[in-house]
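note to self: dont lose this again. the chain is below, predicted strucutre after it. 212 aa total, dont forget to put it in the shared folder this time
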Amino acid sequence: MGREFLDVFEQWADSYDESVSGHNQEYKEVFAGYEQILEAVKERSMGHVVEFGVGTGNLTKILFEKGLNVTGIEPSVPMRRIAEAKLGTNVKILEGDFLHFPEIINIDTIVSTYAFHHLTDEEKDEAIAKYGKLLSKGGRIVFADTMFESGKDYNNAIVEAKAEGFHNLAKDLETEYYTTIPNLRTILEKSGFIVRFKRCNNFVWLMEAEKQ
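---
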């Protein structure tokens, strides 16, 4: 994750929970069904779960409450502090990101929400290759993130955001690394995963991949 995106998260830390609750009209549709999306990730998680991009710990908390063994990875110091205040000493949250993280063994599920788009497609490929080596047969990757069915749909989303006057959303769509489902399918299948996608709202899809 680039320094520019880390800076955004550090500035966003204090208002993140308010944003995901739908109070920001510009991002309301992006976070539509937020709680249900977290629940869907939780229901598909098993065993020892590694979460990339813990943020303020919302998903981490419900994974722990399910009784799962959770290890969190988060690069932002302010985000980690908020998550640690919510979770206490119940969950270990380590410094790191999708590509650079401490050695972790015996992983059953790798999860993330609203964060994988900070990686370029080349970095996504590198990350998935790493996870393919960490997971045994039957291990899972469960990510919920903004993605698009095609490049045309991605471009249409930018046009629609501008037409609505959602200029911050349009800028995010133009400057971050939102990818397409076909690209992700290719990346995952190359590393030995079978993958399924399920739409959660007009922006977010649930991606569930199983190691073969």
